[in-house]
């Protein structure tokens, strides 16, 4: 998932982060065809740059650093695709506005969350659907099992994966990541990695959704956003994710309602 532009963007974001590197799927496996209908490929000048999740027919949630040095005029979202290289029945929609969190701090990695408002609404069908946001903050205790997906590089060469891949990670104590990275980690971040160290631990495109096991449920819920880590340089190190905390859920709702003049109803949350 790395073209030259996305490498530059990621490098800029990681300059002040010790050991920070690319955020790709290494050692994962192919996702079942069209099983993650909410996955969005965020493209800059027709090249894949980041992942994201469709949370409403006209809104995509991703990481704020995916908008660094990016002009909205060249930004598109591609939905309904399993393979970026094949001519599938995909939907390509222009991005109308970018809404990075006002508290986003690139060097520190804080508040790494962004909304993209699409010019037109996505058509919900058998290939495209939305991902439900949590009603409230999901409790993620160490040991919670999660999964992440993206069109990531499958090796340190940064060559794009032809198809959507996924991998499994486990939530760890935040202090585990705090010892690795030179930035201050907050309660709004999740530390997660692969306990077997066979799959890369900062998994998925930047901005891609982290889905974690819900208590008393067999389903995984939208819990976080891929933010930063040392994925390609050291597979033994976990990655850091932006947690969908109450603070961020309130911000998401406020932005969407303001832009849609109150027409976004609570059932979308």
From TrEMBL:
Q: Which SMART domains match?
A: Tryp_SPc
UniProt-listed Gene3D superfamilies = Trypsin-like serine proteases (2.40.10.10)
Which keywords appear in this protein's UniProt record, sorted alphabetically?
A: Disulfide bond, Hydrolase, Protease, Serine protease, Signal
- Origin species, per record, is Scyliorhinus torazame
Cite the PROSITE patterns for this sequence.
TRYPSIN_DOM, TRYPSIN_HIS, TRYPSIN_SER
Does this UniProt record's set of keywords contain Endoplasmic reticulum? Answer: no
Q: Name one GO molecular function term.
A: serine-type endopeptidase activity
**Per the database record, which ranges form the Peptidase S1 domain?**
25-257
| InterPro entries in alphabetical order | Peptidase_S1_PA, Peptidase_S1_PA_chymotrypsin, Peptidase_S1A, Trypsin_dom, TRYPSIN_HIS, TRYPSIN_SER
Q: Which domain of life is it from?
A: Eukaryota
Signal peptide location: 1-22
* Protein name (record): Peptidase S1 domain-containing protein
Q: Which GO terms describe its biological process?
A: proteolysis
């Amino acid at each position: 998932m790395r073209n030259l532009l996305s490498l530059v963007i990621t490098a800029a974001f990681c300059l002040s982060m010790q050991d920070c590197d690319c955020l790709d799927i290494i050692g994962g496996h192919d996702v079942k065809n069209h099983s993650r209908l909410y996955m969005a490929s965020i493209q800059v000048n027709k090249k894949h740059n980041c992942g994201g999740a469709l949370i409403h027919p006209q809104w995509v949630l991703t990481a704020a650093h995916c908008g660094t040095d990016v002009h909205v005029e060249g930004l598109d979202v591609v939905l309904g695709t399993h393979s970026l290289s094949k001519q599938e029945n995909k939907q390509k929609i222009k991005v109308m506005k970018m809404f990075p969190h006002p508290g986003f701090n690139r060097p520190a990695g804080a508040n790494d969350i962004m909304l993209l408002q699409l010019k037109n609404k996505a058509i919900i069908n058998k290939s495209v659907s939305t991902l439900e946001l949590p009603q409230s903050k999901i409790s993620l205790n160490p040991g919670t099992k999660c999964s992440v997906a993206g069109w990531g590089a499958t090796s340190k060469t940064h060559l794009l994966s032809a198809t959507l891949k996924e991998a499994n990670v486990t939530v760890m104590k935040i202090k585990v990541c705090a010892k690795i990275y030179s930035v201050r980690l907050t309660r709004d971040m999740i530390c997660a990695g692969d306990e077997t160290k066979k799959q890369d631990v900062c998994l998925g495109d930047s901005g891609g959704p982290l889905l974690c096991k819900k208590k008393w449920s067999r389903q995984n819920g939208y819990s976080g956003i891929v933010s930063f880590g040392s994925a390609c340089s050291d597979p033994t190190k976990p990655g850091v994710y932006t947690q969908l905390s109450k603070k961020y859920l309130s911000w998401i709702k406020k932005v969407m309602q303001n832009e849609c003049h109150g027409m976004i109803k609570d059932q979308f949350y």
